[in-house]
Sequence to fold (124 residues):
Amino acid sequence: QVQLVESGGGLVQAGGSLRLSCAASGRTFSNYAKGWFRQAPGKEREFVAAINWIGSTTRYADSVKGRFTISRDNAKNTLYLQMNSLKPEDTAVYYCNTDPSYEQLVTMRRITSWGQGTRVTVSS
Fold:
């Protein structure tokens, strides 16, 4: 079973940047699609970004398009999310997850467990 540990969150001013990391251990599923999701206070968890297993295809939520960049290093079993031009509405706990299917990952339909996430707080 794969274990995913998110890190890199913190407090940043609006307009700032953060880089999140997601380290995989155990059965790493390097040939699976991987993605980032977030849950803001009082809101449901939502899709943020996804990348296919070889890193050739990415998809972003409209709210982060042009500001966030997802990438992966399969040799290091690590997923990244570079977040630039952060806004207060980006404040949330960010989670990573994986699925064999890139399309299914985006819908979150088959995700049954989540890690602890990493908290991002953007001050205005």
In short: Residues 21 and 80 are 5 Å apart (CA to CA). The chain is about 5% helix and 50% strand.
